[in-house]
Write a structure and sequence with these properties.
The complex is a heterotetramer, with two copies of chain A and two copies of chain B.
Chain A (H helix, E strand, L loop, with lengths): L6 H4 L19 H4 L17 H12 L22 H7 L2 H4 L11 H18 L3 E3 L5 H18 L6 E5 L5 H8 L3 E5 L9 H7 L4 E7 L11 H10 L3 E6 L11 H4 L3 E4 L19 E3 L11 E5 L2 E5 L16 H41 L16 E4 L1 H7 L3 H10 L6 E2 L8 E4 L7 H20 L1 H5 L12 H6 L8
Parallel strand pairs in A: 2-3, 2-4, 4-5, 5-6
Antiparallel strand pairs in A: 1-7, 6-7, 8-9, 10-12, 11-12
Chain B lengths: L8 H11 L4 H6 L20 H12 L9 E2 L12 H7 L2 H4 L11 H18 L3 E2 L6 H16 L3 E5 L4 H13 L3 E5 L1 E2 L2 E2 L1 H7 L4 E8 L9 H4 L5 E6 L17 E5 L15 E5 L12 E5 L5 E5 L6 H4 L12 H38 L4 E3 L8 E6 L3 H10 L2 E2 L2 E2 L3 E5 L6 H23 L3
Parallel strand pairs in B: 1-15, 3-4, 3-7, 7-8, 8-9
Antiparallel strand pairs in B: 2-10, 5-6, 9-10, 11-12, 13-14, 14-17, 16-17
Helix pairs in contact in B: 4-12, 6-12, 7-8, 12-14, 13-14
The chains are: A alpha/beta, B alpha/beta.
Bound molecules: pyridoxal-5'-phosphate (2 copies).
One pyridoxal-5'-phosphate binds next to helix 7 of chain C.
């Protein structure tokens, strides 16, 4: 049991890991420097622990995590590809890691050059000329995108209220729209998994500010009508936003800019292999077309004859969306990745991601196509695909959740489950390009064996997992009587 | 095949056969319409071996002047604090570095417990009962607090002190323009928020008020005197001062936010670090972002889960309390490891050390010719001086001597201390700055 | 099962992690540069694997190891104390990690200064004036010591053949003696666990070159007759060698030099917390008295007015025992440790190590003193103590080995077992100073519970462990039909 | 209580009470006789906080000129090779860094399998069937091979080529003096071992012969022509050349040893790295050090153990085949990870790259005035030149220009290439060395 005590519960009065630097200046009475009414009466009850205890505590906690370095992690829409350690090495160079964000740009030329180079590379990959690296995650990039769209329309004296999003959209899309003061209008999905053009035509009017689209969408499908979609949206004077979470499918094959999008966000923590960190840090740079450029956030990196600089001189800019220059450490990693792979390697990454996804789809079709049919899979898929667990649920009486939990006992991270919402009992599977064929085969066989087992005895899956540090947890109870900090 | 992929020619043959296509091109062609195919290679440099990438990145890094290359007194939101070795080691462990958000709690207890411990530590620091598991960073945390207030009371105005960091004020304005709030700014008087103007500015349509402690000029604000009952009181706080400064939860603050970089995170030219976000119980179900909660498993074992998810975008979509999804979990891990390392006594000792060294530095600089204090308020770890000389030129002179004297203000400097700046460093700053100011004043007096 | 495939078995023709730097010089025909008869016909069959596969393979292997950062590791005689990560950080500084060993000493002044400072500190801790950091481990230090002793006697025109070692000595002591061309003569242990003085007197004659002694010895006992022992040995003109593996017991409390020893080796990987690395790297510096100094290995660090230098100018030196300057990286770590703790901290380390050992001994006496009596424990112990499992074996029919294996299921690394040889069913327990009282209590309780369990059912312990990646292994079979490499 | 210990005042009270003593002093006093108690604090500097130790060590490091600070052609046993990031990452994992020798195989399968894989890699490289799990480093490995020969055949003499690295020759002499062997040295002719003198030197009392491939001057030896049937043939080999050079196992070598640093280990000013030690089947039970072997557990699962332990000191004591105990397991892990990274094709590609670049460098330098080749033998990655100028002064001049041209020989330089030295680096070496030699020749011609 001691392995679930928190660090607070392990503390004992008097222990410490920190040794303070010596007081090397003449000591002045505290009251003189800081009047008592401003002072804290009781120290915050942080843990009192020695250094060895901290190390052991967190090393042991780490062992209660599943991670990408240890196993297959086909979490759809998340692009859990290998994180090269070279990136951690270069990001830790003191010239980056210990560079103060307010350093005079003349003395931060290497950092600005790196940002400039990364911006140029993202521009080429997306086919859109201008880039801001500022947003801290995909959702932050989306917020930037919607605010830029507002600014664009306002600059034209228009107030448009609506943002179209397909029902396959990721939750951050609609949440962002509301946060940016606009209103979500849902667009339907057609029988091939793409945007319902009739519905789109009907809803696209002069009050529409923006269409937010993921392409390939969250089913792993590229919209075959993308050119028509762009036309419909542009014809009503609205902007096209590309949610780039799935860009890993198409590098070097097609570009949002060439499809007619005005704004795209990148998830550096997906396509460009910034490690996911258990839920961040991420990074959500955006690329935009010429007509959006005047509104981009400040500061911006500019290249001048005397070197690189940061400028805030942009009268129409929407301003800042955060402090400093963005998650620079993620820029270092993603830039290293782009330089490691180059044009050919990036294209190879996308091609292999698509090959692996189609292969795994084919294997699963062989093994269990009847119980877990693919949603809208008549044209195969790009980098991911979505299965429906509905027949399985009907036939074997186990749900997608049960299948997912049983996969844990097989040492796999389950796919994304119950997303996208429009597929019943959805399983969204993204193998990525860095997995071997052997791993894909093992995964397909694991799924098949779970289904076989369930046919014998569905209770096994329904009560899974068994071999994990804890088993199914009472989530409802947690939400009802929230205990969200250690009582002390 | 690159070094990160593994499809051998034989694999490729077998895989295509299983799929039932003849080539990879076919896979794309059946998905991507001809009209939007790129049809040419990307115009990017060719790939490089690992060692060449390392060397290129190293050469770029060498063009930067880091805090290892000069004695820096730059602060203003991020600080050259010492990162203990155990923090780096734990942040680099695969098991923390490479998973994603703990959607499957059975195999994510490590990350979830870390979040729970982090929330506890932030709650203790701020003396507020509720903390989330991190937001992006400091300034946008302030914007997120504004959104919380707007959703909570539906009013239309924000009042913000001019003592709040300019990046935070700008971010709030940008975000508030989106969710359609007016923003009124209250000026400083004698280095702190003008209390009369502040209370005058707050009206019945005010949704939230924003201040910073210590404020941007390093001055300790009288938060209790600025706190009000009605609109939501949001304070952006410096976490390393909270061992000695009265915490927001004891000063009438409803929401405390701030930049977590100092807590075990590197400067990284501005990020990634983490923002913290803590509030009173009343806002529990309006918080942005992930929250870990304690529960039990089917066998009765203690465990942790993401909880109160109905606030969040993936469940609530357009009615979510925030759009945040990926946050800064790894950096927050660094934060809680750092705070455990510092410990209950350490956070006080460190605060007191900063207090004393800052007082010493302030006194030394104020004694220089051409340098005077911008305000006389109490300070903890940062203070502002006015220079009787062109600020940018003075700074350049100091940097040429290996000392970065701080951030340029309109007519002065914002000087920050950390535990890494010794008395010897401060004395050197005084020498170099004194000489630089003197030289610049001579230059102005005797035009060439 | 796939988790026990070797990296060789996982390889597939055509995969790779390495990308060669470009050939940037004019290519010359291979035959011209290297005649075919010198060339290898078939490439060595190294694995063909991608980088992600390597990472996953070794990360998963690492999870099949128990380690000090995760749990209590009371391996007697090995001083498994906390390894501060600061040491890894400083050792990795490019100024050390990428310093070529043949760099001109004028351009390696920092490294030499560090070595000098470390030598001075080790000298003060041991009470012996001269230090050589060269040996790579304890055993290597011992070899240096015996060769120095030979040189000393030879320089006096004497050929002495015998080396006295107590029967409690570590195996490296006798093995070293043979390797240095001398002959081992065993000295008995008296009823208090110390050297049998009568036996020593009898065996100490003019043919004795050296007495090798561990003090405190491998029972954790300080020899109360140490002054008398030194006198007996010196009286016959022999040298006294101090095996410093147990120095962690006595820092700041007593010093080998002051006890009369001429040579001491340090295990930097024990007392000075160089991580053990799964069996090295280690480091075995030696300190010696004035009379031994002329024979010390070269090169030696010297301090001159113009700076630090390396000198080989030592006509009586025994020469070199390895390449370059020794395991410099271990010097960085141990020097960092000494500077972190300082005089007071080092003494505190020893005192706490002794406190923890005596506390754990007392707890185990309470819990199971009858079944696991301490060997020679009438005066308590210093940093470790030795229990005998003989009564347990008799009463409960489980052996020390069974107890050790059952401890694995409790999440503890067992103590050193069956050493020292003179204690029947020995368990040598060294908790070190960096463990908490809570951990010591848990360990004592675990032992007690295993004994209780064995009283009920000894089979449980006899077949332990159960919860480990593999269970008891067929060691006899492995030695009989050795498979010591992957067949390809 | 320091930051690494955890005894609170309350703990101390309870612990002393349980032990039944009144103080820590008592614990020592009952063990350590009064006559040898130190009775004063150690005369060492006071302890420092982590950040101060870091700064002190960083400042010392800054006084060294590392291979990051200059373009180096230093080699002679250790080389500035690129260490892939995954090697560092794996060597830093707690599970590999902090355990000791795998005495308990059930909880040490990771380390044991690593040893097994390492042994396989070394066996493949050397084309010899038996490898141990590492010895200290290169030169002492040669001494250990000598001890093996002595135990095997009981003869009294060693014959060693002057082409063996001086550190190895010296180490062999030191160790052989202990186990009482004579050592005869055979000179080089035209840069390689004098074949006639070599065979003449080998007599019926010769226990082992020692050579190096490529030899100290970089020359490829004709190992097959030097190998003999009877005494044990020991070759010290450069592992990075084994992708292209005929391996020792195919040249009549009985024992191959060498320095493993290049295989994923840092320079570290000379260590820690690892020594490798491989032999023919005949010597399996005479090997020094740990050997991992494959076996099964009681449930039939594959597993690994330390095997053939009856060779070792902890079992066999004075009759052990070696005294080695702690070896270099972590460094050997770095070795096998590096070799997996390089792979079957990489080791060949890297060897060929070195071959070509070395040929280019040799040609460039030989074309300089005052520089000529010391020998014309084939070389792979290192070569020797004669300088017609004072060597130390030439080197100093080059280093002042940021180029370390190699190791000083009596009248020349030993120049080493690694994959990190590009053509541009070689061209720069040629320029700088040419200028330095010219300058020194002028200086000698025109004495001041
Ligand atoms: C399709 C899609 N859009 C947006 C996001 C949001 O990105 P982030 O988590 O970086 O905010 C995600 C991933 O989480 C996603 O999968
Ligand atoms: C008492 C004693 N002497 C000598 C040694 C040998 O030291 P090393 O393993 O460093 O060669 C050891 C440890 O293994 C030991 O415990």
């Amino acid at each position: 049991m001691s392995d679930t005590l928190t660090i607070f519960e392990k503390g004992r009065e008097g222990r410490r890991a920190f040794v303070a630097p010596e007081l090397d200046v003449p000591e002045r009475p505290k009251d003189e420097l800081l009047p008592p009414r401003f002072r804290r009466a009781e120290a915050p009850r942080l843990p009192e622990v020695s250094e060895p205890e901290i190390v052991r505590h967190y090393v042991n906690l780490s062992k209660r995590n599943f991670d990408l370095d240890s196993g297959f992690y086909p979490l759809g829409s998340c692009t859990m590809k290998h994180n090269p350690r070279l990136h951690e090495r270069v990001a830790a160079l003191p010239g980056y890691a210990r560079l103060h964000p307010l350093q005079d740009p003349k003395r931060a030329q290497g950092a600005l050059e790196l940002m400039w180079n990364l911006e140029r590379a993202l521009s080429e990959i997306s086919g859109l000329p201008h880039v801001s690296l500022q947003p801290s995650a995909g959702s932050h990039g989306e917020l930037a995108g919607v605010l830029l769209t507002r600014a664009y329309h306002e600059d034209r004296g228009q107030t448009r209220h609506k943002v179209l999003t397909p029902d396959t959209a990721h939750g951050t899309n609609p949440a962002t729209v509301t946060m940016a003061g606009l209103e979500v209008v849902k667009v339907g999905t057609n029988e091939h998994g793409g945007v319902d053009l009739d519905d789109l035509r009907e809803k696209a009017d002069e009050d529409v500010a923006l269409l937010m689209l993921t392409n390939p969408n969250t089913l792993g499908l590229f919209d075959p009508n993308i050119e028509e979609i762009a036309k419909i949206v542009h014809d009503v004077g609205a902007i096209l936003y590309y949610d780039g979470a799935n860009l890993n499918a198409v590098m070097g094959r097609t570009r949002p800019g060439d499809m007619g999008f005005d704004i795209v966000h990148f998830n550096l923590h997906k396509t460009f292999t910034q490690p996911h960190g258990g839920g961040g840090p991420g990074s959500g740079p955006i690329a935009v077309s010429d007509r959006i450029e005047p509104y981009l956030m400040v500061p911006r990196v500019v290249k001048r004859t005397e070197g690189f600089a940061l400028t805030e001189d942009a009268p129409k800019s929407i301003g800042r969306l955060r402090g400093f220059q963005g998650n620079f450490g993620t820029f270092v990693r993603s830039y290293a990745y782009i330089r490691s792979l180059g044009a050919e390697g990036l294209q190879d990454a996308s091609e292999t991601a698509v090959l692996n996804a189609n292969y795994l789809l084919a294997r699963l079709r062989q093994e269990c196509g009847d119980l877990l049919p693919v949603a809208f899979g008549e044209r195969g898929c790009l980098h991911e695909f979505c299965l429906s667990g509905a027949p399985m649920k009907r036939e074997l009486q186990i749900k997608t959740l049960d299948l997912a939990k049983r996969l844990l006992d097989h040492g796999f991270h389950p796919p994304t489950v119950y997303f996208p919402l429009l597929v019943d009992e959805a399983l969204l599977i993204e193998p990525t390009e860095t997995e071997t064929k052997e791993t894909l085969d093992e995964f397909a066989e694991a799924i098949a064996s779970i289904l076989r087992e369930a046919r014998e005895d569905p209770e096994i899956a329904r009560n899974a997992p068994y071999d994990t540090p804890v088993r199914r947890l009472d989530e409802a109870g947690a939400a009802k009587r929230p205990v969200i900090r250690q009582p002390l | 095949m690159s070094r990160y992929t593994a499809v051998t020619p034989e694999d490729l043959r077998e895989m295509l056969a299983t799929i039932g296509v003849g080539s990879i091109d076919e896979l794309f062609d059946r998905q991507v319409p001809a009209g939007v195919r790129l049809g040419r290679p990307l115009d990017l440099p060719a790939g490089l071996p690992e060692q060449a990438v390392y060397e290129h990145l190293r050469d770029l890094a060498a063009k930067n002047t880091s805090t290892e290359d000069e004695i820096t007194f730059l602060g203003a939101g991020m600080y050259d604090t010492y990162v203990p070795a155990i923090v780096d080691m734990l942040m680099e462990r695969s098991e923390f570095l490479t998973p994603y958000t703990p959607y499957q709690p059975e195999i994510s207890q490590g990350g979830l417990q870390v979040m729970f411990e982090y929330q506890t530590a932030i709650s203790e620091l701020t003396a507020l009962p509720v903390s989330n598991a991190s937001v992006y960073e400091g300034p946008s945390a302030l914007g997120a607090a504004g959104y919380l207030a707007k959703l909570a009371n539906g009013r239309r105005r924000f009042v913000i002190s001019a003592g709040v960091h300019p990046h935070s004020r700008e971010t709030l304005r940008t975000m508030a323009h989106g969710y359609e709030m007016e923003v009124a700014e209250v000026p400083l008087r004698d280095g702190v928020t003008d209390r009369d103007a502040w209370h005058d500015a707050i009206d019945g349509d005010t949704s939230a008020v924003f201040l910073q402690q210590p404020n941007f000029l390093g001055a300790v604000e009288d938060v209790e005197a600025l706190a009000v009952d009605e609109p939501v009181v949001v304070a952006q706080v410096d976490p390393l001062t909270l061992g000695i400064l009265k915490p927001p939860g004891e000063c009438g603050v409803d929401v405390a936010v701030g930049e977590g970089q100092q807590l075990g995170n590197r400067l990284d030219y501005g990020g990634p670090s983490f923002g913290f976000f803590a509030a009173t119980e009343a806002y529990l179900r309006r918080m942005p972002g992930r929250i870990a909660g304690e529960t039990k498993d089917v066998d009765g074992r203690r465990g942790f889960v993401l909880t109160l998810q109905t606030r969040e975008q993936h469940i609530r979509r357009e009615r979510a309390t925030s759009n945040i999804c990926t946050a800064q979990a790894l950096n927050a891990l660094g934060g809680v490891v750092y705070l455990s390392w510092l410990g209950r006594r350490g956070i006080v000792e460190l605060g007191e050390l900063l207090l004393q060294r800052t007082a010493y530095a302030r006194e030394r600089l104020a004694a220089l010719d051409g340098v005077e204090l911008l305000h006389e308020q109490p300070v903890v770890r940062e203070f502002a001086v006015r220079l009787d000389a062109p600020v940018e030129r003075v700074i350049a002179r100091c940097q040429d001597q290996g000392v970065n004297p701080g951030l340029a203000l309109d007519d002065g400097l914002l000087v920050a201390l950390t535990e890494r700046r010794s008395r010897a460093d401060i004395d050197r700053l005084a020498d170099v700055l004194g000489a630089a100011v003197a030289a610049e004043r001579r230059r102005v007096e005797v035009p060439a």
